[in-house]
Protein backbone atom coordinates (compact mmCIF):
# COMPACT_ATOMS: atom_id res chain seq x y z
CA UNK A 1 0.00 0.00 0.00
CA UNK A 2 2.71 2.45 0.97
CA UNK A 3 5.03 1.45 -1.84
CA UNK A 4 4.34 4.62 -3.77
CA UNK A 5 5.17 6.86 -0.82
CA UNK A 6 8.44 5.08 -0.15
CA UNK A 7 9.96 6.26 -3.38
CA UNK A 8 8.48 8.57 -5.92
CA UNK A 9 10.49 7.06 -8.76
CA UNK A 10 9.16 3.51 -8.78
CA UNK A 11 5.44 3.41 -9.44
CA UNK A 12 2.87 0.66 -9.05
CA UNK A 13 2.95 0.34 -12.81
CA UNK A 14 6.70 -0.33 -12.81
CA UNK A 15 6.20 -3.08 -10.26
CA UNK A 16 3.42 -4.67 -12.28
CA UNK A 17 5.56 -4.48 -15.40
CA UNK A 18 8.51 -6.10 -13.62
CA UNK A 19 6.28 -8.88 -12.32
CA UNK A 20 4.90 -9.64 -15.78
CA UNK A 21 8.37 -9.51 -17.33
CA UNK A 22 9.71 -11.91 -14.70
CA UNK A 23 6.71 -14.22 -14.84
CA UNK A 24 7.03 -14.55 -18.59
CA UNK A 25 10.75 -15.29 -18.55
CA UNK A 26 10.83 -17.33 -15.31
CA UNK A 27 12.39 -20.60 -16.53
CA UNK A 28 12.62 -19.71 -20.20
CA UNK A 29 16.29 -18.83 -19.92
CA UNK A 30 16.97 -21.67 -17.50
CA UNK A 31 20.50 -23.04 -17.68
CA UNK A 32 22.65 -25.30 -15.54
CA UNK A 33 24.99 -22.52 -14.41
CA UNK A 34 22.97 -19.75 -12.85
CA UNK A 35 19.54 -21.32 -13.48
CA UNK A 36 16.83 -18.65 -13.21
CA UNK A 37 19.21 -15.71 -12.83
CA UNK A 38 18.94 -14.40 -16.42
CA UNK A 39 15.16 -14.28 -16.01
CA UNK A 40 15.57 -12.25 -12.82
CA UNK A 41 17.82 -9.80 -14.68
CA UNK A 42 15.35 -9.60 -17.55
CA UNK A 43 12.43 -9.13 -15.18
CA UNK A 44 14.00 -6.42 -13.05
CA UNK A 45 16.13 -4.67 -15.67
CA UNK A 46 13.60 -1.91 -16.42
CA UNK A 47 12.70 -1.07 -12.84
CA UNK A 48 16.32 -1.22 -11.67
CA UNK A 49 17.28 1.21 -14.44
CA UNK A 50 14.90 3.66 -12.79
CA UNK A 51 16.48 3.10 -9.40
CA UNK A 52 20.14 3.15 -10.47
CA UNK A 53 20.70 6.24 -12.58
CA UNK A 54 24.44 5.76 -12.88
CA UNK A 55 25.55 3.20 -15.46
CA UNK A 56 28.14 1.75 -13.08
CA UNK A 57 25.59 1.19 -10.32
CA UNK A 58 23.17 -0.33 -12.80
CA UNK A 59 25.81 -2.75 -14.08
CA UNK A 60 26.85 -3.71 -10.56
CA UNK A 61 23.25 -4.33 -9.56
CA UNK A 62 22.44 -6.47 -12.60
CA UNK A 63 25.72 -8.38 -12.30
CA UNK A 64 24.63 -9.15 -8.76
CA UNK A 65 21.33 -10.52 -10.05
CA UNK A 66 23.23 -12.65 -12.57
CA UNK A 67 24.30 -14.80 -9.61
CA UNK A 68 22.73 -18.23 -9.21
CA UNK A 69 19.04 -18.05 -8.46
CA UNK A 70 16.52 -20.88 -8.28
CA UNK A 71 13.27 -21.21 -6.40
CA UNK A 72 9.63 -21.90 -7.16
CA UNK A 73 8.84 -19.21 -9.72
CA UNK A 74 5.54 -18.36 -8.05
CA UNK A 75 7.30 -17.71 -4.75
CA UNK A 76 10.14 -15.82 -6.42
CA UNK A 77 7.65 -12.98 -6.95
CA UNK A 78 7.67 -12.31 -3.21
CA UNK A 79 11.48 -12.33 -3.06
CA UNK A 80 11.98 -10.14 -6.10
CA UNK A 81 9.36 -7.64 -4.96
CA UNK A 82 11.21 -7.36 -1.65
CA UNK A 83 14.59 -7.12 -3.44
CA UNK A 84 13.36 -4.12 -5.41
CA UNK A 85 12.22 -2.48 -2.19
CA UNK A 86 15.69 -3.00 -0.69
CA UNK A 87 17.52 -1.52 -3.67
CA UNK A 88 15.08 1.36 -3.77
CA UNK A 89 15.80 2.19 -0.15
CA UNK A 90 19.58 1.85 0.00
CA UNK A 91 20.65 1.99 -3.64
CA UNK A 92 23.67 -0.01 -4.71
CA UNK A 93 24.89 -0.28 -1.10
CA UNK A 94 22.14 -2.87 -0.58
CA UNK A 95 23.80 -5.20 -3.09
CA UNK A 96 25.19 -7.69 -0.58
CA UNK A 97 22.06 -7.63 1.55
CA UNK A 98 19.91 -8.33 -1.49
CA UNK A 99 22.12 -11.25 -2.45
CA UNK A 100 22.10 -12.68 1.09
CA UNK A 101 18.35 -12.27 1.32
CA UNK A 102 17.75 -14.01 -2.00
CA UNK A 103 20.06 -16.96 -1.30
CA UNK A 104 18.77 -17.32 2.24
CA UNK A 105 15.11 -17.41 1.29
CA UNK A 106 15.13 -19.30 -1.98
CA UNK A 107 15.73 -22.70 -0.35
CA UNK A 108 12.90 -22.64 2.19
CA UNK A 109 10.49 -21.07 -0.29
CA UNK A 110 11.34 -23.70 -2.90
CA UNK A 111 10.72 -26.48 -0.37
CA UNK A 112 7.20 -25.31 0.35
CA UNK A 113 6.54 -23.79 -3.07
CA UNK A 114 7.56 -26.75 -5.19
CA UNK A 115 5.39 -29.02 -3.07
CA UNK A 116 2.36 -26.79 -3.41
CA UNK A 117 2.76 -25.52 -6.95
CA UNK A 118 4.41 -28.37 -8.82
CA UNK A 119 3.24 -31.43 -6.89
CA UNK A 120 -0.01 -30.94 -4.97
CA UNK A 121 -1.82 -28.51 -7.27
CA UNK A 122 -1.20 -30.54 -10.45
CA UNK A 123 -1.99 -33.74 -8.51
CA UNK A 124 -5.39 -32.61 -7.37
CA UNK A 125 -6.34 -30.84 -10.61
CA UNK A 126 -4.63 -33.49 -12.75
CA UNK A 127 -6.50 -36.31 -10.99
CA UNK A 128 -9.87 -34.67 -11.36
CA UNK A 129 -9.41 -33.41 -14.92
CA UNK A 130 -7.62 -36.61 -16.00
CA UNK A 131 -10.44 -38.76 -14.66
CA UNK A 132 -13.06 -36.64 -16.40
CA UNK A 133 -10.95 -36.58 -19.57
CA UNK A 134 -10.95 -40.39 -19.74
CA UNK A 135 -14.71 -40.12 -20.25
CA UNK A 136 -14.22 -37.50 -22.95
CA UNK A 137 -15.25 -34.68 -20.65
CA UNK A 138 -13.23 -31.40 -20.74
CA UNK A 139 -14.90 -29.81 -17.69
CA UNK A 140 -11.98 -30.57 -15.36
CA UNK A 141 -9.50 -29.11 -17.83
CA UNK A 142 -11.57 -25.93 -18.16
CA UNK A 143 -11.73 -25.50 -14.38
CA UNK A 144 -7.96 -26.00 -14.21
CA UNK A 145 -7.41 -23.36 -16.87
CA UNK A 146 -9.61 -20.86 -15.04
CA UNK A 147 -7.82 -21.51 -11.74
CA UNK A 148 -4.51 -20.83 -13.50
CA UNK A 149 -5.82 -17.46 -14.64
CA UNK A 150 -6.85 -16.61 -11.08
CA UNK A 151 -3.44 -17.70 -9.79
CA UNK A 152 -1.78 -15.53 -12.43
CA UNK A 153 -3.32 -12.42 -10.89
CA UNK A 154 -2.60 -13.73 -7.42
CA UNK A 155 1.10 -14.00 -8.34
CA UNK A 156 1.10 -10.41 -9.56
CA UNK A 157 -0.32 -9.55 -6.16
CA UNK A 158 2.49 -11.55 -4.48
CA UNK A 159 5.07 -9.40 -6.24
CA UNK A 160 3.30 -6.32 -4.90
CA UNK A 161 3.11 -7.78 -1.41
CA UNK A 162 6.81 -8.58 -1.49
CA UNK A 163 7.52 -5.03 -2.55
CA UNK A 164 5.39 -3.36 0.10
CA UNK A 165 5.96 -5.57 3.13
CA UNK A 166 9.10 -7.53 2.22
CA UNK A 167 10.98 -9.54 4.83
CA UNK A 168 8.39 -9.54 7.60
CA UNK A 169 5.69 -11.07 5.47
CA UNK A 170 7.86 -13.85 4.09
CA UNK A 171 8.94 -15.11 7.49
CA UNK A 172 5.40 -14.87 8.84
CA UNK A 173 4.03 -16.90 5.93
CA UNK A 174 6.46 -19.78 6.47
CA UNK A 175 4.69 -21.57 9.32
CA UNK A 176 1.22 -21.15 7.90
CA UNK A 177 2.36 -22.49 4.58
CA UNK A 178 3.59 -25.66 6.26
CA UNK A 179 0.17 -26.39 7.73
CA UNK A 180 -1.37 -25.58 4.39
CA UNK A 181 0.98 -28.01 2.66
CA UNK A 182 0.09 -30.78 5.11
CA UNK A 183 -3.65 -30.23 4.58
CA UNK A 184 -3.16 -30.23 0.83
CA UNK A 185 -1.30 -33.55 1.18
CA UNK A 186 -4.29 -35.00 3.03
CA UNK A 187 -6.65 -33.99 0.24
CA UNK A 188 -4.15 -35.13 -2.39
CA UNK A 189 -3.75 -38.62 -0.91
CA UNK A 190 -7.51 -39.13 -0.62
CA UNK A 191 -7.84 -38.32 -4.32
CA UNK A 192 -4.90 -40.54 -5.26
CA UNK A 193 -6.37 -43.42 -3.28
CA UNK A 194 -9.58 -43.03 -5.25
CA UNK A 195 -7.69 -42.88 -8.53
CA UNK A 196 -6.17 -46.35 -8.24
CA UNK A 197 -9.42 -48.29 -8.72
CA UNK A 198 -11.02 -45.74 -11.04
CA UNK A 199 -8.32 -45.17 -13.64
CA UNK A 200 -6.00 -48.19 -13.55
CA UNK A 201 -7.88 -50.90 -15.41
CA UNK A 202 -6.86 -54.55 -15.74
CA UNK A 203 -9.13 -57.32 -16.89
CA UNK A 204 -8.38 -61.05 -17.14
CA UNK A 205 -10.68 -62.58 -19.77
CA UNK A 206 -9.72 -66.22 -18.98
CA UNK A 207 -12.46 -68.59 -17.80
CA UNK A 208 -12.03 -71.95 -16.07
CA UNK A 209 -14.21 -74.66 -17.53
CA UNK A 210 -15.04 -77.79 -15.50
CA UNK A 211 -17.75 -79.74 -17.25
CA UNK A 212 -20.69 -77.41 -17.81
CA UNK A 213 -19.62 -74.87 -15.20
CA UNK A 214 -17.60 -71.88 -16.36
CA UNK A 215 -15.76 -69.79 -13.84
CA UNK A 216 -14.63 -66.39 -15.08
CA UNK A 217 -11.52 -65.51 -13.10
CA UNK A 218 -12.11 -61.77 -13.11
CA UNK A 219 -15.72 -61.49 -11.98
CA UNK A 220 -16.05 -64.67 -9.88
CA UNK A 221 -12.69 -64.86 -8.15
CA UNK A 222 -10.70 -61.62 -8.20
CA UNK A 223 -13.62 -59.22 -7.80
CA UNK A 224 -14.98 -61.35 -4.96
CA UNK A 225 -11.73 -61.01 -3.02
CA UNK A 226 -11.61 -57.26 -3.52
CA UNK A 227 -12.66 -54.90 -6.30
CA UNK A 228 -9.71 -53.44 -8.18
CA UNK A 229 -7.40 -56.06 -6.69
CA UNK A 230 -5.04 -56.16 -9.68
CA UNK A 231 -4.68 -52.35 -9.95
CA UNK A 232 -3.91 -52.20 -6.22
CA UNK A 233 -1.27 -54.93 -6.54
CA UNK A 234 0.21 -53.31 -9.64
CA UNK A 235 0.38 -49.94 -7.86
CA UNK A 236 2.21 -51.53 -4.95
CA UNK A 237 4.66 -53.36 -7.22
CA UNK A 238 5.46 -50.26 -9.30
CA UNK A 239 5.70 -48.17 -6.13
CA UNK A 240 8.30 -50.58 -4.74
CA UNK A 241 10.12 -50.72 -8.08
CA UNK A 242 10.48 -46.95 -8.18
CA UNK A 243 11.50 -46.80 -4.52
CA UNK A 244 14.25 -49.39 -5.13
CA UNK A 245 15.77 -47.01 -7.69
CA UNK A 246 17.05 -49.97 -9.71
CA UNK A 247 15.08 -48.94 -12.79
CA UNK A 248 14.52 -45.50 -14.24
CA UNK A 249 10.97 -44.24 -14.77
CA UNK A 250 11.43 -44.56 -18.52
CA UNK A 251 12.46 -48.20 -18.12
CA UNK A 252 9.44 -48.87 -15.92
CA UNK A 253 7.11 -47.32 -18.50
CA UNK A 254 8.51 -49.55 -21.21
CA UNK A 255 8.34 -52.51 -18.83
CA UNK A 256 4.60 -51.92 -18.32
CA UNK A 257 4.07 -51.56 -22.08
CA UNK A 258 6.06 -54.76 -22.64
CA UNK A 259 4.04 -56.61 -20.00
CA UNK A 260 0.79 -55.44 -21.57
CA UNK A 261 1.94 -56.59 -25.03
CA UNK A 262 3.03 -60.03 -23.77
CA UNK A 263 -0.20 -60.51 -21.79
CA UNK A 264 -2.21 -59.39 -24.79
CA UNK A 265 -0.41 -61.89 -27.03
CA UNK A 266 -1.18 -64.81 -24.70
CA UNK A 267 -4.70 -63.55 -23.95
CA UNK A 268 -4.00 -63.12 -20.25
CA UNK A 269 -5.18 -59.53 -20.24
CA UNK A 270 -8.02 -58.16 -22.36
CA UNK A 271 -9.11 -54.68 -23.43
CA UNK B 1 -7.83 -26.87 -43.43
CA UNK B 2 -5.30 -29.58 -42.72
CA UNK B 3 -2.46 -27.11 -43.21
CA UNK B 4 -4.00 -24.61 -40.80
CA UNK B 5 -4.52 -27.34 -38.22
CA UNK B 6 -0.91 -28.44 -38.62
CA UNK B 7 0.37 -24.89 -38.15
CA UNK B 8 -1.83 -24.33 -35.09
CA UNK B 9 -0.61 -27.58 -33.53
CA UNK B 10 3.03 -26.57 -34.07
CA UNK B 11 2.31 -23.09 -32.68
CA UNK B 12 0.69 -24.66 -29.63
CA UNK B 13 3.79 -26.84 -29.17
CA UNK B 14 5.96 -23.72 -29.25
CA UNK B 15 3.77 -21.83 -26.80
CA UNK B 16 3.17 -24.76 -24.44
CA UNK B 17 6.71 -24.95 -23.09
CA UNK B 18 7.06 -21.17 -22.77
CA UNK B 19 3.84 -20.95 -20.81
CA UNK B 20 4.69 -23.88 -18.54
CA UNK B 21 8.02 -22.28 -17.72
CA UNK B 22 6.55 -18.81 -17.42
CA UNK B 23 2.95 -17.69 -17.12
CA UNK B 24 1.55 -21.15 -16.18
CA UNK B 25 -1.89 -20.51 -17.67
CA UNK B 26 -2.36 -22.99 -20.51
CA UNK B 27 0.55 -25.07 -19.13
CA UNK B 28 1.79 -28.27 -20.73
CA UNK B 29 -0.39 -30.51 -18.62
CA UNK B 30 -2.02 -33.11 -20.88
CA UNK B 31 -5.64 -32.39 -19.87
CA UNK B 32 -5.46 -28.74 -20.92
CA UNK B 33 -3.20 -29.28 -23.95
CA UNK B 34 -5.41 -32.17 -25.07
CA UNK B 35 -8.48 -29.97 -24.85
CA UNK B 36 -6.91 -27.21 -26.96
CA UNK B 37 -5.54 -29.75 -29.45
CA UNK B 38 -9.00 -31.34 -29.59
CA UNK B 39 -10.58 -27.99 -30.40
CA UNK B 40 -8.02 -27.43 -33.17
CA UNK B 41 -8.59 -30.93 -34.58
CA UNK B 42 -12.37 -30.73 -34.20
CA UNK B 43 -12.81 -33.80 -31.97
CA UNK B 44 -12.64 -32.83 -28.31
CA UNK B 45 -14.07 -36.10 -26.99
CA UNK B 46 -11.44 -38.40 -28.48
CA UNK B 47 -8.70 -35.88 -27.70
CA UNK B 48 -9.80 -35.77 -24.05
CA UNK B 49 -9.72 -39.56 -23.77
CA UNK B 50 -6.15 -39.60 -25.07
CA UNK B 51 -5.23 -36.64 -22.87
CA UNK B 52 -6.73 -38.35 -19.84
CA UNK B 53 -4.42 -41.34 -20.25
CA UNK B 54 -1.35 -39.12 -20.51
CA UNK B 55 -2.54 -36.83 -17.71
CA UNK B 56 -2.72 -39.74 -15.31
CA UNK B 57 0.69 -41.02 -16.43
CA UNK B 58 2.07 -37.55 -15.79
CA UNK B 59 0.69 -37.30 -12.25
CA UNK B 60 3.87 -37.91 -10.32
CA UNK B 61 6.03 -36.00 -12.73
CA UNK B 62 7.21 -32.64 -11.48
CA UNK B 63 10.10 -30.83 -13.08
CA UNK B 64 11.46 -29.09 -10.05
CA UNK B 65 14.93 -28.00 -9.09
CA UNK B 66 15.84 -27.92 -12.77
CA UNK B 67 15.27 -31.62 -13.43
CA UNK B 68 14.20 -32.80 -16.87
CA UNK B 69 11.11 -34.95 -17.14
CA UNK B 70 9.26 -36.73 -19.96
CA UNK B 71 7.15 -34.15 -21.69
CA UNK B 72 3.67 -35.63 -21.49
CA UNK B 73 2.16 -32.47 -22.91
CA UNK B 74 4.23 -33.00 -26.03
CA UNK B 75 3.22 -36.68 -26.00
CA UNK B 76 -0.44 -35.64 -25.79
CA UNK B 77 -0.13 -33.05 -28.53
CA UNK B 78 1.51 -35.28 -31.15
CA UNK B 79 -0.54 -38.25 -29.97
CA UNK B 80 -3.81 -36.38 -30.45
CA UNK B 81 -2.72 -34.94 -33.79
CA UNK B 82 -1.51 -38.18 -35.34
CA UNK B 83 -4.35 -40.28 -33.90
CA UNK B 84 -7.08 -37.92 -35.14
CA UNK B 85 -5.45 -37.65 -38.55
CA UNK B 86 -5.57 -41.42 -38.83
CA UNK B 87 -8.79 -42.51 -37.13
CA UNK B 88 -11.78 -41.47 -35.06
CA UNK B 89 -12.29 -44.89 -33.50
CA UNK B 90 -11.56 -44.37 -29.82
CA UNK B 91 -9.69 -47.60 -29.03
CA UNK B 92 -7.50 -47.28 -32.13
CA UNK B 93 -6.90 -43.61 -31.42
CA UNK B 94 -5.72 -44.45 -27.91
CA UNK B 95 -3.32 -47.10 -29.19
CA UNK B 96 -1.89 -44.83 -31.90
CA UNK B 97 -1.55 -41.87 -29.55
CA UNK B 98 0.35 -44.02 -27.08
CA UNK B 99 2.61 -45.54 -29.74
CA UNK B 100 3.53 -42.11 -31.14
CA UNK B 101 3.26 -40.01 -28.00
CA UNK B 102 5.37 -41.98 -25.53
CA UNK B 103 8.61 -42.03 -27.59
CA UNK B 104 8.24 -38.37 -28.56
CA UNK B 105 7.55 -37.41 -24.94
CA UNK B 106 10.70 -39.28 -23.89
CA UNK B 107 12.66 -37.46 -26.58
CA UNK B 108 11.42 -34.33 -24.83
CA UNK B 109 13.83 -35.09 -21.94
CA UNK B 110 16.90 -34.99 -24.19
CA UNK B 111 15.76 -31.85 -25.97
CA UNK B 112 15.04 -30.14 -22.67
CA UNK B 113 18.56 -30.92 -21.44
CA UNK B 114 19.93 -29.55 -24.71
CA UNK B 115 17.88 -26.37 -24.31
CA UNK B 116 19.21 -25.82 -20.80
CA UNK B 117 22.78 -26.40 -21.97
CA UNK B 118 22.43 -23.90 -24.82
CA UNK B 119 20.96 -21.32 -22.47
CA UNK B 120 24.28 -21.09 -20.63
CA UNK B 121 25.58 -19.27 -23.71
CA UNK B 122 22.56 -16.96 -23.68
CA UNK B 123 23.28 -16.03 -20.08
CA UNK B 124 26.98 -15.42 -20.83
CA UNK B 125 26.25 -13.34 -23.91
CA UNK B 126 23.70 -11.23 -22.04
CA UNK B 127 26.06 -10.57 -19.16
CA UNK B 128 28.83 -9.63 -21.60
CA UNK B 129 26.51 -7.14 -23.31
CA UNK B 130 25.63 -5.70 -19.92
CA UNK B 131 29.26 -5.13 -18.98
CA UNK B 132 29.89 -3.44 -22.30
CA UNK B 133 27.05 -1.08 -21.48
CA UNK B 134 24.91 -2.34 -24.38
CA UNK B 135 21.68 -2.58 -22.40
CA UNK B 136 19.36 -2.78 -25.40
CA UNK B 137 21.42 -5.61 -26.85
CA UNK B 138 21.24 -7.47 -23.54
CA UNK B 139 17.43 -7.28 -23.62
CA UNK B 140 17.39 -8.74 -27.12
CA UNK B 141 19.77 -11.57 -26.24
CA UNK B 142 17.45 -12.73 -23.47
CA UNK B 143 14.80 -13.48 -26.09
CA UNK B 144 16.97 -16.23 -27.58
CA UNK B 145 16.22 -18.27 -24.43
CA UNK B 146 12.48 -18.69 -25.05
CA UNK B 147 13.20 -19.20 -28.73
CA UNK B 148 15.44 -22.19 -27.92
CA UNK B 149 12.92 -23.73 -25.51
CA UNK B 150 10.06 -23.19 -27.96
CA UNK B 151 12.00 -25.04 -30.62
CA UNK B 152 12.64 -28.02 -28.32
CA UNK B 153 8.94 -28.84 -28.55
CA UNK B 154 7.99 -27.23 -31.88
CA UNK B 155 10.59 -29.18 -33.88
CA UNK B 156 9.56 -32.72 -32.90
CA UNK B 157 5.92 -31.69 -33.29
CA UNK B 158 6.60 -30.34 -36.78
CA UNK B 159 8.20 -33.67 -37.75
CA UNK B 160 5.16 -35.56 -36.48
CA UNK B 161 2.79 -33.19 -38.28
CA UNK B 162 4.70 -33.66 -41.53
CA UNK B 163 5.34 -37.41 -41.46
CA UNK B 164 3.51 -38.87 -38.44
CA UNK B 165 0.18 -39.96 -39.91
CA UNK B 166 1.71 -41.48 -43.04
CA UNK B 167 4.13 -43.48 -40.92
CA UNK B 168 1.40 -44.63 -38.58
CA UNK B 169 -0.91 -45.72 -41.43
CA UNK B 170 1.94 -47.70 -42.89
CA UNK B 171 2.65 -49.40 -39.57
CA UNK B 172 -1.03 -50.08 -38.84
CA UNK B 173 -1.39 -52.01 -42.09
CA UNK B 174 1.21 -54.48 -40.90
CA UNK B 175 0.67 -54.59 -37.15
CA UNK B 176 -1.38 -57.53 -35.77
CA UNK B 177 -4.45 -57.03 -33.57
CA UNK B 178 -2.86 -58.36 -30.37
CA UNK B 179 -0.28 -55.59 -30.66
CA UNK B 180 -2.72 -52.68 -30.91
CA UNK B 181 -4.82 -54.38 -28.21
CA UNK B 182 -1.70 -54.63 -26.08
CA UNK B 183 -1.07 -50.92 -26.50
CA UNK B 184 -4.65 -50.17 -25.44
CA UNK B 185 -4.18 -52.37 -22.38
CA UNK B 186 -0.91 -50.60 -21.63
CA UNK B 187 -2.83 -47.33 -21.88
CA UNK B 188 -5.17 -48.47 -19.12
CA UNK B 189 -2.27 -49.68 -16.96
CA UNK B 190 0.18 -46.81 -17.39
CA UNK B 191 -1.56 -44.34 -15.06
CA UNK B 192 -0.11 -46.58 -12.38
CA UNK B 193 3.37 -45.20 -13.07
CA UNK B 194 2.23 -41.65 -12.41
CA UNK B 195 0.38 -42.66 -9.25
CA UNK B 196 3.27 -44.73 -7.89
CA UNK B 197 5.76 -41.98 -8.66
CA UNK B 198 3.56 -39.44 -6.94
CA UNK B 199 3.30 -41.60 -3.85
CA UNK B 200 7.10 -41.50 -3.52
CA UNK B 201 6.90 -37.77 -2.95
CA UNK B 202 3.87 -37.65 -0.71
CA UNK B 203 3.76 -38.46 3.00
CA UNK B 204 2.15 -41.87 2.35
CA UNK B 205 3.17 -43.50 5.60
CA UNK B 206 1.92 -40.57 7.64
CA UNK B 207 -1.46 -40.38 5.90
CA UNK B 208 -1.98 -43.98 4.72
CA UNK B 209 -5.45 -43.67 6.27
CA UNK B 210 -6.46 -41.15 3.64
CA UNK B 211 -5.14 -43.29 0.81
CA UNK B 212 -7.18 -46.28 2.00
CA UNK B 213 -10.31 -44.19 2.59
CA UNK B 214 -10.06 -42.83 -0.96
CA UNK B 215 -9.53 -46.33 -2.35
CA UNK B 216 -12.43 -47.91 -0.48
CA UNK B 217 -14.91 -45.18 -1.34
CA UNK B 218 -13.97 -45.39 -4.99
CA UNK B 219 -13.60 -49.17 -5.38
CA UNK B 220 -16.52 -50.35 -3.21
CA UNK B 221 -18.87 -47.40 -3.19
CA UNK B 222 -18.11 -46.12 -6.73
CA UNK B 223 -18.40 -42.47 -5.73
CA UNK B 224 -17.28 -40.12 -8.54
CA UNK B 225 -13.85 -38.56 -8.07
CA UNK B 226 -15.15 -35.03 -7.55
CA UNK B 227 -17.19 -36.25 -4.57
CA UNK B 228 -14.10 -37.94 -3.13
CA UNK B 229 -12.09 -34.78 -3.70
CA UNK B 230 -14.68 -32.87 -1.68
CA UNK B 231 -14.43 -35.44 1.08
CA UNK B 232 -10.63 -35.07 1.00
CA UNK B 233 -11.10 -31.33 1.20
CA UNK B 234 -13.29 -31.81 4.26
CA UNK B 235 -10.52 -33.76 6.03
CA UNK B 236 -7.93 -31.21 4.91
CA UNK B 237 -10.06 -28.33 6.12
CA UNK B 238 -10.47 -29.95 9.51
CA UNK B 239 -6.72 -30.52 9.81
CA UNK B 240 -5.99 -26.97 8.69
CA UNK B 241 -8.36 -25.23 11.09
CA UNK B 242 -7.34 -27.43 14.02
CA UNK B 243 -3.65 -26.74 13.49
CA UNK B 244 -4.03 -23.06 12.77
CA UNK B 245 -5.61 -22.70 16.20
CA UNK B 246 -2.59 -24.34 17.79
CA UNK B 247 0.23 -22.62 15.91
CA UNK B 248 0.47 -19.02 17.10
CA UNK B 249 1.93 -20.20 20.42
CA UNK B 250 4.19 -22.97 19.12
CA UNK B 251 4.91 -21.69 15.63
CA UNK B 252 7.26 -23.89 13.70
CA UNK B 253 7.88 -26.45 16.48
CA UNK B 254 5.52 -29.13 15.22
CA UNK B 255 6.38 -28.57 11.61
CA UNK B 256 10.09 -29.22 11.56
CA UNK B 257 9.47 -32.68 10.13
CA UNK B 258 8.14 -31.22 6.91
CA UNK B 259 11.41 -29.65 5.93
CA UNK B 260 12.84 -33.14 5.48
CA UNK B 261 9.95 -34.20 3.28
CA UNK B 262 10.26 -31.08 1.19
CA UNK B 263 13.87 -31.91 0.44
CA UNK B 264 12.88 -35.15 -1.29
CA UNK B 265 11.52 -33.18 -4.21
CA UNK B 266 14.92 -32.03 -5.26
CA UNK B 267 16.06 -35.51 -6.22
TrEMBL record, chain B:
It is a multi-pass membrane protein. GO terms for biological process: phosphoenolpyruvate-dependent sugar phosphotransferase system. This is PTS N-acetylgalactosamine transporter subunit IIA. Keywords: Cell membrane, Membrane, Phosphotransferase system, Sugar transport, Transmembrane, Transmembrane helix, Transport. GO terms for cellular component: plasma membrane. The chain crosses the membrane at residues 29-54, 61-84, 96-119, 140-164, 184-204, 211-240. It comes from Sporolactobacillus inulinus CASD. Pfam families: EII-Sor. It is found in: Cell membrane.
Amino acid sequence: MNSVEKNDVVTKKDIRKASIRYMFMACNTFNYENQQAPAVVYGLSKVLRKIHKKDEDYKASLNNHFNYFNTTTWMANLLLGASIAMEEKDGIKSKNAVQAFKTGMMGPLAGVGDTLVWVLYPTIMGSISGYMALQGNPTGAIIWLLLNVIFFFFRMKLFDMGHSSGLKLITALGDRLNIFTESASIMGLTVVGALIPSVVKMNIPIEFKTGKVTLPIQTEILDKIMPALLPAVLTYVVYKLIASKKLSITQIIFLVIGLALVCSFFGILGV
Amino acid sequence: MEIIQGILIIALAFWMVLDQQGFVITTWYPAIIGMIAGIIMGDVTTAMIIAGTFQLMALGVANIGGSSVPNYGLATLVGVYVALRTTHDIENAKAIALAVGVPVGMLGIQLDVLGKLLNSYVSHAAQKALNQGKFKKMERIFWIGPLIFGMTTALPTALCVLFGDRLVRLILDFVPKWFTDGLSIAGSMLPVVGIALLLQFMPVKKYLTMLIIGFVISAYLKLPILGIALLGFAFAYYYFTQNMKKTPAVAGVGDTGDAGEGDDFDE
